[in-house]
Amino acid sequence: MKNIKNPYTLQIADFSYELIDDRIAKFPLEERDASRLLVYRKGEITESVYRDLADEIPAGSLLVFNDTRVVRARLVFKKNNGRDIEIFCLEPDQRYTDISSAMAVSGEVYWNCLVGGASKWKQGMTLEMKLEHDGIPVLLSASIHSRNNNSFTIHFCWSPVEITFAEILNIAGKMPIPPYLHRKSEDSDTTRYQTIFANKEGSVAAPTAGLHFTDHVFESLREKGITSTFVTLHVGAGTFKPVKSEIIGDHEMHAEFIDVQRQILEELLRFDGNIIAAGTTSMRTLESLYWMGVKVAVCPEAHLEDISVKQWDPYIQQLENHIPPTEAILHLLRWMDRNNLTRIICKTQIFIAPGYKVKMVNALITNFHQPQSTLLLLVAALIGEDWRKVYDYALENRYRFLSYGDGSLLWGN
Hints:
Elements: E1 36-41, E2 44-49, E3 62-66, E4 68-70, E5 74-78, E6 84-92, H1 99-103, E7 108-116, E8 127-133, E9 136-147, E10 152-159, H2 165-172, H3 189-192, E11 200-203, H4 215-223, E12 227-234, E13 256-261, H5 262-270, E14 275-278, H6 280-298, H7 325-338, E15 343-348, E16 363-367, H8 374-383, H9 386-396, E17 407-411
Parallel strand pairs: 1-17, 3-12, 3-14, 4-11, 14-16
Antiparallel strand pairs: 1-2, 5-6, 6-7, 7-10, 8-9, 9-10, 12-13, 13-15, 16-17
């Protein structure tokens, strides 16, 4: 296979900047679409606000959003001695094919979790929590099924058994706001750390670019002839994982579930060359679809598990310089037809960093991300070294950073 330019040897220290605490937005603005919007286009920076976003986007464009819904993934149990054991539900055990089906399980479920206070929780010890659902008593128990490298597989059981795990989390869980906010979740986070179009439950972090969108913004986009559509990528806690290795090639990218309907692929064909990703998760989904198309072009008889995108796939694909995005999507549609599929549900581990040539989108709407993060690497892949220009400007002009902060519209170079 041909090895295209890759980011393996990049130093993560080269993607750093000084982010002081008072630039981090600890709470959202009262009005979602009042957030500031930095617009970068062809090396030039201008300013706007989200409620005027339609003024910055050409008519006939397609905006792609992530409609995942954040679940109340933090469960706090108390031991008999009164000490807390916090369980952070990351993703379903591998025995389940996807998040949606695992969330719909009733009675018991196995889930991959982080555990706070794990040293105080002995194997064989069962934790219990008494709850109430629609006036009916509910008993939830948790026990350690197995210990993994950096996490645990937890066996949850509950009664009445008719209740689904999604309902259990809604009853018992707390919103998993980002750790860098350095505060406990509040009632307001239940609605504000959720997009207004959130639909499919499964994320432990919000697709934060979407937090700025309101009915007013969507209406203004429609009036200008800008189309909106939705894919699903269930965001994992790995999105907050810093790159700790000195060389980017030594970092393991987290895997996430995507769920894309056939009609979305057909829309991508209609809007070829005029697609804007609303958020890094939407961009990762769209770019993953391209590489899935490449894989089935190479191997038309590939099974679903074969087309999931691994971290370094985009840097070793032999068709990289020969297959345009429209052709990749057409290959994927034909593959779906042969396999009688109307939607694709699988994992992606795509790692977008400098050296990656963006295929599917020509612009990205996104918040301002942490130093030395994979999200900042993605931004640098799209706009090159000008990421420094954008971030320096945002810092100097007191933009609000991270999940509850302001955002940017970045046009690719």
